[in-house]
Amino acid sequence: MPSKSITPVLLCGGSGTRLWPLSRKSYPKQFAPLIGQETLFQASARRLSGQANGLNFAAPLVLANSDFRFIVTEQLMAIGIDPGAILIEPEGRNTAPAILAAALHAAADDPESILLVAPSDHVIPDTEAFQAAVARGLAALEQGDLVTFGITPDRPETGYGYLELTEKPDASGAPVKLARFVEKPDKARAENMLTAGTYLWNAGIFLFRAKDIISAFETHAAALVEPVKASLSQAQTDLGFLRLAPEPWVELEDISIDYAVMEKAPNLSVVPFTSAWSDLGGWDAVWRESGPDGTGVVTSEHATAIDCENTLLRSESEDLEVVGIGLQNIMAVAMEDAVLVANMDRAQDVKKAVEALKAKGASQATAFPKDHRPWGWFESLVVGSRFQVKRIVVHPGASLSLQSHFHRSEHWIVVEGTARVTVDDDVKLVTENESVYLPLGCVHRMENPGKMPMVLIEVQTGAYVGEDDIVRYEDVYART
Amino acid sequence: MPSKSITPVLLCGGSGTRLWPLSRKSYPKQFAPLIGQETLFQASARRLSGQANGLNFAAPLVLANSDFRFIVTEQLMAIGIDPGAILIEPEGRNTAPAILAAALHAAADDPESILLVAPSDHVIPDTEAFQAAVARGLAALEQGDLVTFGITPDRPETGYGYLELTEKPDASGAPVKLARFVEKPDKARAENMLTAGTYLWNAGIFLFRAKDIISAFETHAAALVEPVKASLSQAQTDLGFLRLAPEPWVELEDISIDYAVMEKAPNLSVVPFTSAWSDLGGWDAVWRESGPDGTGVVTSEHATAIDCENTLLRSESEDLEVVGIGLQNIMAVAMEDAVLVANMDRAQDVKKAVEALKAKGASQATAFPKDHRPWGWFESLVVGSRFQVKRIVVHPGASLSLQSHFHRSEHWIVVEGTARVTVDDDVKLVTENESVYLPLGCVHRMENPGKMPMVLIEVQTGAYVGEDDIVRYEDVYART
């Protein structure tokens, strides 16, 4: 019989600019397939799903910001996982308020709820080993402990915080009491800690009962409790999302769970985890986690390395070939609209690329070529002085707003699936290989009434083809 | 009063795989804008045009292979130069047969014709200095000399052949008699030659009267003369091109003008040229000729270098941002469909990239994203399993073939200019923001009857959207 169910709490904050160009503000790294075929978010959700290794995972509770809510549902749908709830943070306030909101939400059903809180942008290749670690942690919950997970270091890493244990973990990997948190060390300190055996990397993954973490908040971060309760109690349901009330949320302190609670709590146990783990904090980490070959080379499907060493070559498009010749210690990541080439030792400076592009006004700094919307996504295929061509993909059952334009006419050609198209008073179905003309000024809408994605080519012509030439009359996503 | 006119003979052979991805078999480097806004071919044609510095250039005689004939006319038209004749070589046979054909063609009008033979893929930034060198060479023609141009070396280059002079050139830069040709040297030899002062780089640029070079062929390479005469006399005029007859052309020896004639001719003078010159034989040469800044960095418009040294960063598209961080001695060239990242010392190995891509069957090895055709060009914007979207640009007055397809229907939307469209028995004008539907199997044609380029978006749908699903009924370019 499986034990009491565990509710995963997936945190989807974080912008990951150090993984530009694949990770951008408009589409951060947790939603990108950095390692393997699935995105990091999908892999995180799958790792904490189903029944296996004596565990019984409930539907996940997801915390996301408003911009990415539809990406969350789309990516979960694609791997067949139904979220229990998706809580929308009015603004990011770091992990403490988010986790407290999740705990209060779960406690409303059952204060004994067991929550496993995990960032959604980490790589943990061995799911079975991780689930076994979770199972070891359950024992400590009975005594009201808050459990965190510590990764056994395999190198003197200076980029992570550490957890100092009261004693060396034994071979069973049973929870050990925490002595204290240790900030990111310098190299010498990191080397000492590596040999000591009582220091583990702080992975930011937690296991606790809802009532215990709420109690810890009440003791150590009392100022957060009432405002978060208020935002939750006034939350509004919107298309299946639970939108936390902006007031008083936006007044909350921006603070991590470590600072707010964990560093002060006496009842902290650490479960040692000896398998591979990475927070993918840079392209050097992606290179390391991708399994370099004997000469240290990692290449993606459409990348070719000739006489290279310690080099990462990635093409993020099947229409893009990347070739490296005679490279050493280089990482190159190519997309259709942006290419990064950097020395491997400068992985932490990739955010400078983003800053430089922002300074010159290049959209690639923050905007992804595919623009995700509530109803699906679109990408611009070509822009001329008086025309633009887009590919538009609409999810089954989804609908764009009823809209009109002052400066452009549009030709729509359906190339996959079936659209229901409204043009002024006329509504009709348009299927593969059929087209519709939308004269300038007409009031129109595109919907996908079918069961498969609808793909449409839109050809715009007119004196101005910017996104902001739009008048919205009705919108199921409340954007009018 | 300008002197007797000089007919430029522009050689457009050469595939330039060492400049991949910008230079590919389907679109070699001479037709690409490698330095500055114009292509190398356009810059070469412009350098040898008009009346200036006491010279009077006649319309150029261009030698090209069949695949590039329309690129030649398109690029000359764009800079307002009318070619005197475009000779099409049935197959490339190196420079000797091509130059002989040009000389015979010119001699038919006037055996005294002065010809200036130049490759079309060299960089010579100072046009005035070059024209002055040409003017100095004219004096030597009176005595029946063949004149070649020698570049004063500024480094011990091992990648070029040298011309050894009988004496040091004087300050006037007057022609000096050639002692002999010197093959590409090793480093030590190159350093000795650099200090000697009597060795110049062999640039492969020639000046002679038609009758003198023909006479030299008759003396030193007699076997070529009759076959080339025969190919020329049986040449066919085709849309303004002069197509040399394949028989006996294809039987000709593949031999350079240096081997066939110049190394044997006693009447060779060399005009020293002291200004900058490059044959752009690799990306390192492009880097050098692009004027590196104080830290050795060259960046194109959409490229950004952060803490780089001795590095070339090029974006070949206005929709593509390239960023380099902490690079030393690296060259990176990014296009929408291919990216090269290489150590600067490996410039000569870029052809290995082409070989590697050929081996894996990637079209980027040889095919350019823009596909140039007699009537204009097209590019694929997106390809799905059952659809494809293309941008098609048709030159004024040009016409595609009358054709049909077995597996696809097409939607055409004109976004710039006006098209005349034939669909079975119907012919009509279609202008900006109008569309036409072409059902599967219909016989159709697209023409541009207007005075400006016509741009059309083609949306294809069907079970197969390959280029080879085409039946051609009539084609003004004789492709049926």
User: What would you report as the Rg of chain A, rounded to the nearest angstrom?
Assistant: 25 Å
Name given to the CATH architecture of the largest domain in chain A:
Alpha-Beta Complex
Largest sheet of chain A: 6 strands, antiparallel
**Which chains make the largest contact?**
A-B, 59 and 59 residues
Shape of chain A: globular
Strand content of chain A: 25-35%
Ends distance of chain A: 51 Å
* Assembly classification: homodimer
Question: Uncertain segments of chain A of ≥5 residues (pLDDT<50)?
Answer: none
Which secondary structure elements does this structure contain, and how are they paired or packed?
2 copies of one chain form a homodimer.
Chain A: E1 6-11, H1 40-47, E2 51-52, E3 55-56, E4 61-65, H2 69-78, E5 85-89, H3 95-109, E6 114-119, H4 127-141, E7 146-151, E8 162-165, E9 176-182, H5 187-196, E10 199-209, H6 210-220, H7 222-233, E11 236-238, E12 241-243, H8 246-249, H9 257-262, E13 268-273, H10 283-289, E14 297-299, E15 303-306, E16 311-315, E17 321-325, E18 330-334, E19 338-343, H11 350-359, E20 371-373, E21 376-383, E22 387-394, E23 402-404, E24 408-416, E25 418-423, E26 426-431, E27 435-438, E28 444-447, E29 454-462, E30 471-474
Parallel strand pairs in A: 1-4, 1-6, 4-5, 5-12, 7-13, 14-16, 15-17, 16-18
Antiparallel strand pairs in A: 2-3, 6-10, 7-10, 8-9, 8-10, 9-13, 11-12, 18-19, 20-21, 21-22, 22-29, 23-30, 24-27, 24-29, 25-26, 25-28
Helix pairs in contact in A: 3-6, 3-7, 6-7
